[in-house]
Design goal:
3 helices
C-alpha cells in the first residue's frame, strides 16, 4: 500500500483547489492511503518536519509554479 500526499501551497488567502481530492475513490480502490495538505509558504519549515514524520511514498503537488515551490521546500 502506498501513502500519498496531495500537497498544495497556498499563495493567497483563498480556498484551496479541490482537483486532487477528486481522485480519492480511485486511490482507495487500489488500497492506497492519502492525505490532503494545504501549506502556507511562510510555514515551509513546519511542513518539512511534518512530512518527514509521515514518510509518504508519493507527493502530488498542486502549485502554479511547482519547480519554484519544490526548490523552496
Amino acid at each position: 500500500m502506498f501513502r500519498i500526499s496531495f500537497l498544495q501551497c497556498q499563495i493567497v488567502k483563498e480556498l484551496p483547489h479541490m482537483n486532487m481530492p477528486l481522485f480519492v475513490n480511485d486511490i482507495k480502490a487500489h488500497g492506497c492511503s492519502f492525505e490532503c495538505i494545504c501549506a502556507a509558504r511562510s510555514k515551509l519549515r513546519d511542513l518539512v518536519t511534518y512530512l518527514k514524520k509521515k514518510n509518504f511514498d508519493l507527493f502530488a503537488v498542486d502549485y502554479p509554479f511547482p519547480i519554484m515551490f519544490l526548490n523552496e521546500l
